[in-house]
Amino acid sequence: MKNNIYTILALGVVLTLGACKKDFLAQNNPNAVTVENYFKTENDVLLAVNGAYQSLRSSNTMGENSGLFTDERSDDTGRNDNQSNAGEPFQFNDFSLLPSNSYLKAHWLALFNAITRSNVILSNVDRVTFTTPANKINYVAEAKFIRAIMYFELVRKWGPVPLVTKQLQNTDEVTAATFRVPEADVYNQIVADLKDGLNSTLPNFQSTASIGRTSKAAINAYLGKVYLTMASTLPNNKAENLTNANTYLTAAYNMRAFGNLSEIPYTDVFDVTKKTTCKELIFQIPYKQGDINYSSSIAANNQAKGETINSLKVSTGVGGNVTLDLINEYETADPRKDFSVKYANDATVKDWFITKFRDASALATNNGYGGNDWILMRYADVILMLAEVNMLQGNDALAIQYLDMVRARAGMQLYAIAKNDPAYAAKFPNLKLAILHERRVEFAFEHQRWFDLIRNFTAAELVTYLKAKPQSAFGIAKLANVTTKDRYYPIPFDEVKLDPVKMYQNPGY
């Protein structure tokens, strides 16, 4: 049996939310499959797990086109268009986000929908008799992994959120679960779910046929990132969380199948022809080149009018917008700049656009059906998190060693030399800012920047950091709008209406 995650969960799930004695209302839909009747075989569970993975692809969860909720909130990208779609997308980068924003609500609902898919699996897996017991353990681990990374998205963006870990059967159960729990409780559940995966028989890395499914390397890497985030954003247990972050990040790093990061060219990480063989990749969402349903559109979407570097699809727009603030942060001769961005000279553009994700091959066709996988975790991330955690633990020497691994791969001066350059030292006067800079240019447009900012700065510090930037390098989105409230997103208005006390709004909205 192939573990192909393109096998989409096709369940017509019917939850009876109330009983009625009227016969004509009590008729069964012959085309519906209830949850109770669906889970009968191991393959049924596999298909359900595949369906949970499929939810990651959505632009409203974590897929390649979900940058509105991450990069466009940061200082890397945005849009110089405050009119399209009633101006709602512009609100994210303009720091004028309203609780009624329909994109915000769609993001919230999609994340919880993915959690629901995982909960349905976990609440019904015991109905099935497994001929291979290890399969059950692994499917449970995968469902918990998906639930964990979805809650990781939620808690970082909204803070306290409802915490649901089982299938809800009726409106009473839904109502009872509709309340926000403290961030620490959400993080504890994330950690528990991920740790359970380490007790499974999942491989350290998935085979080529199973790329897109989680692994122990991915689980260790995510545990490290979760603990690092906890250490930086929660008020208690900082030292313990840093220790745990170091432990799990080191475990992930020691699982690598290469020696030095410099063995893997930066461009190989994004090369469509090498996405199944590149040893830097830890966890990715697969896309199928040339397939109308499961192809990647990111290369074509980012391409500006008059350009052909990304895709054979002809562009009529400005492509993926890049702030001048990011352009100005690249060091002289950093090859990552030339690979990641380009200036479009078309008279209707005259601006920088994203070129990091490319598939201009004939197999992608003139429709832009690219084969780019969306990378959620790779080893440069693990290495720079190890630099960050060691810096926070006071071990600057080791932190610099990890920082230099990434700089060396890019062909940049090692930190000891770079910090003596007046231009570099002026921009990045301490190790913290040097690591944050390295993350910015290494992971540009990979949906990392906003999370890096909120992990490294308190709400007040973030306001100071952003407002120190020149407005001229930020586009038409107004930096003057930034306040401490912008550390978190507002709870969607329709969610607050359910119970204004238990689903209270975040301050400032």
Could you describe the 3D structure shown?
The chain has 509 residues and is mostly helical. It has helices at 35-38, 42-54, 90-94, 102-124, 133-158, 171-177, 183-198, 216-233, 238-254, 298-302, 324-329, 335-340, 379-392, 396-409, 415-418, 422-427, 431-442, 449-456, 459-467, 493-498, and strands at 281-285, 341-344, 351-354, 374-378. A two-stranded antiparallel ribbon has the order 1-4. The chain has a two-stranded antiparallel ribbon with strand order 2-3. The longest helix has 26 residues, at 133-158.
How are the elements arranged and paired?
Elements: H1 35-38, H2 42-54, H3 90-94, H4 102-124, H5 133-158, H6 171-177, H7 183-198, H8 216-233, H9 238-254, E1 281-285, H10 298-302, H11 324-329, H12 335-340, E2 341-344, E3 351-354, E4 374-378, H13 379-392, H14 396-409, H15 415-418, H16 422-427, H17 431-442, H18 449-456, H19 459-467, H20 493-498
Antiparallel strand pairs: 1-4, 2-3
Structural class: mainly alpha
DSSP E strands, number: 4
Parts with pLDDT < 50 across at least 5 consecutive residues: 1-27
Q: Write down the overall mean pLDDT.
A: 93
Question: Which strand order does the major sheet show?
Answer: 1-4
Largest sheet: 2 strands, antiparallel
The number of helical runs is 20
**Helical content (DSSP H or I, runs of 4+):** 40-55%
Straight-line N-to-C gap:
51 Å
Brief overview:
This protein has 509 residues and is mainly alpha-helical.
